Amino acid sequence: MTPSYNRGVRILMLLVVLAACTPQQRVENPHARRARSADPSVDRDVTLDVAPGGVVLARDGANVDLGTLWVSQRVVVVFYMGGWCPHCQKQLGDLNNAQKQFTDRGAKIVAISADSPQDAGAMRDKLSLGFDLYSDADLAVIAKWGVEDYGSRIARPATFIVEPGGSISFRKVGSKQEDRPSVDDLLAALGAPKPATP
User: Fold this and answer.
1) Which of 50, 76, 145, 190 is deepest in the core (most CB within 10 A)?
2) C-alpha 47: how far from chain center
3) Domains of the chain: which residue ranges?
4) Given 3.20.20.70, 2.120.10.90, 3.10.20.310, 3.40.30.10, which CATH number is that of 46-190?
5) pLDDT tens digits, residue range 141-172?
6) pLDDT in tens, 49-69
7) What b/e string do you get for 166-179 counting C-beta neighbours within 10 Å, with b at 16 or more?
8) In this predicted structure, what is the pLDDT of residue 171?
9) Against a cut of 0.85, is the pTM above it?
10) How far apart are CA 16 and CA 190, in angstroms?
């Protein structure tokens, strides 16, 4: 065997070993590409007593005034990071699987992200969700609720229960991707199911 052949085999083996040692590919936030500079020292207020409302976009691009959703019923408002986030997909799927339990307690579920209306609609279809996903691409509503992720241009994982009229009775703002309330936590916060009317 020639020295150049042996060198080529060694290089090939080294490349194979290096490829095997590379860490798993991270799931990246597509919004980070358009991140703007922000001052992380500014503290967001996530202790609101009343839901601030605001306008988000439905999958067809229509404006939806969030304040109209909780005029006469409870609403579980979920802020998720985006369709690229596996923890978000799991949370939304878990909520969907328990949707009847939320309905029995008089609560509607909605979820909001910085994804485009088309991406939010595609995510809803992919997960076969029975509730709406709304778009807040400019983070106007996300910032009002105090859950903007600085620099990444996404929402931090956060869940609120809004009572009829707009008062907030439950809040959980996650410090990392997997930091979210469980379905059981939310059902406990909502209380017992409403008795069926004859």
Assistant:
1) 145
2) 19
3) 46-190
4) 3.40.30.10
5) 999 999 998 788 999 999 999 999 999 999 99
6) 899 989 999 999 999 999 999
7) bebebbbbbeebee
8) 94
9) no
10) 54
